[in-house]
Design goal:
The chain is globular. It contains 5 helices and 10 strands. It has a single domain, classed as Aminopeptidase (3-Layer(aba) Sandwich), CATH 3.40.630.30. With 189 residues, the chain is α+β, with helices and mostly antiparallel strands. The strands form 2 sheets. An 8-stranded mixed β-sheet has the order 1-2-3-4-5-6-10-7, sandwiched between helices. Strands 8-9 form a two-stranded antiparallel sheet.
Length: 189
């Protein structure tokens, strides 16, 4: 079912399983957009898509595929934005900001991870999220691995609409690590 936000906005189609026709187009973009150690296998998504907290959505502008947004609804009421990607042919046209704005409008509190701002690309990414109302949280954080052999990597946490308290950060870390343990090749085997 496509979820329209308003007359000028994008629509979002929730993907229910890897058999859904929308899954193939989303997964191709996913594989092309993120380093392998930041990706779950398609097999892991079979299980994750059964979890009611997980939302894999394709994003559309009229009938044109724009991108994907994968997010989790935590029990504490915030959203963990796990992956957002825009079709490379459409980058630089404000689609990423529109997707982010729509998610924040729909869900309220949104938390995500980015690479530490150490080079031009990572600094631009931090600036993008900051321009869209996200706060940079100075907590020491390592994201768990989605692959074997394990490859945990340092990331920084950003949050909307406010900075995280130490207790909120601890809750976030526990939630994300639990998802990695449950829905990746490194967990449950």
């Amino acid at each position: 079912m496509k979820i329209p936000m308003d007359m000028e906005s994008l629509t979002y189609e929730k993907v229910g399983s890897v058999a859904d026709p929308q899954w193939a187009i989303a997964y191709r973009l996913y594989e092309a957009s993120f380093p392998s150690f930041e990706q779950r296998s398609e097999r892991d998504y079979v299980a994750a898509l059964r979890d009611e907290r997980f939302h894999a959505e394709t994003v559309w502008d009229a009938d044109r595929f724009v991108g994907l947004v994968f997010w989790w609804l935590a029990d504490e009421g915030y959203v963990y934005l796990e992956h957002l990607a825009v079709d490379p042919a459409l980058r630089g046209k404000s689609y990423g900001a529109r997707i982010l704005r729509d998610l924040c409008t729909r869900m309220g509190r949104v938390w995500l991870e980015i690479d530490p701002p150490v080079d031009e690309i990572s600094c631009r990414r931090r600036g993008f999220y900051a321009r869209n109302g996200f706060f940079y949280n100075e907590y020491d954080y390592f994201h768990p691995s989605y692959q074997r052999p394990p490859h945990p990597h340092r990331l920084m946490v950003m949050s909307y609409p406010a900075a995280l308290t130490p207790a909120e950060f601890a809750s976030f870390r526990t939630f994300v690590h639990g998802l990695a343990d449950r829905y990746t090749m490194t967990g449950g085997e």
